[in-house]
Amino acid sequence: MSKTARKGAQGSAAVAASEPTGPRPARLTAAAVLTGLQGLALAASGIYLLVMGLLGTPDSPQQAETGGLTVLALAALPLLAARGLWQLRRWSRGPAMITQIMALPVAWTLLNAGGALMITAAVALTLVAVVTLALVVNPTATEALGIGPRES
């Protein structure tokens, strides 16, 4: 075996050893599901905006279509984070937390928009974001993801 092949084999063994194994904790499963639902809701909203921009009669079809494509692109973050949490990937914690932190100003905007439906949506979004944040930063979840205190 050549020196390069041995190095590659050692590197892949080190990567495999650093990947978390074992059962997925219920808290991490719940965080993955909630984050995935947020991503699906964003994707559905993006598709709705896109379809209404193409087939409806908005004031500005171009703006509606651009908004729909933007929301579809934004849906990728929580969907990827949910997949990573489900697969116990340590990189997924950051995008999941960013998704929840970004949801809080959206909830505030919905709350200030007024109306029973908007206030209900704001409360629901706030609850999902705070609960998911708590689940993701929970010590059980961080341990399952292979995230721990840094060694000096």
From TrEMBL:
Residues covered by region (Disordered): 1-23
Superkingdom of this protein's organism: Bacteria
Keywords from the UniProt entry: Membrane, Transmembrane, Transmembrane helix
Regions crossing the membrane: 28-55, 67-86, 107-136
Record keyword Transmembrane helix present: yes
Name assigned to this protein: Integral membrane protein
Species this chain originates from: Streptomyces triculaminicus
